[in-house]
Write a structure and sequence with these properties.
Layout: H1 14-18, E1 20-21, E2 38-41, H2 45-54, E3 57-68, H3 73-84, E4 88-96, H4 111-116, E5 127-137
Parallel strand pairs: 2-4
Antiparallel strand pairs: 1-3, 3-5, 4-5
Length: about 150
């Protein structure tokens, strides 16, 4: 009989499985503490991401997926934010009929198709489409100030 260490088992989430890092951005873990992460729902995701970028945030990466059932958005988004060093997660969620979920040639979800044939409501057993953006303040580009010279 063989045993597997519990520490060797890595769990995955929809956020981890579908995360796409922004080009040229360091996604090293440990750059942010759990208590410093904000997860916020957005009704205008693209516009709010653009606004945050103007305010000095950088886009670390994004996720987009379709799923069924009750997804723990806040907990899974927070875990992914810790993994990639993001301090802010903005997300939008749309209820969806399974038949309306289609993918575009680039692999993204055709949100127009989802919105054209919506279900009555988001239900715990129904399908949904989620898009999220992971952001953090841009690192300061300057070098640290030089230490003052000691006077004799």
């Amino acid at each position: 009989m063989s045993y597997v260490s519990v520490h060797a088992i890595r769990t995955h989430s929809l956020f981890a499985d579908h995360f796409k890092a922004s080009q040229g951005v360091d996604t090293s873990a440990g750059l942010v503490q759990k208590q410093d992460i904000r997860v916020l729902m957005s009704t205008r995701l693209d516009q709010e991401v653009a606004q945050k970028r103007e305010e000095g945030f950088e886009l670390v990466g994004s996720v987009e997926f379709a799923a069924k059932g009750d997804c723990g958005v806040a907990a899974e988004a927070t875990d992914q934010a810790i993994t990639v060093g993001a301090s802010l997660v903005l997300f939008s969620i749309w209820p969806a009929k399974f038949r309306a979920i289609k993918h575009l040639p680039d692999g993204s979800i055709d949100l127009a198709a989802v919105l054209a044939d919506p279900p009555v409501a988001l239900t715990p057993k129904g399908y949904f489409v989620l898009k999220a953006a992971f952001l953090r303040p841009k690192p300061s580009g300057g070098s640290p100030p030089a230490a003052p010279e000691a006077k004799p």
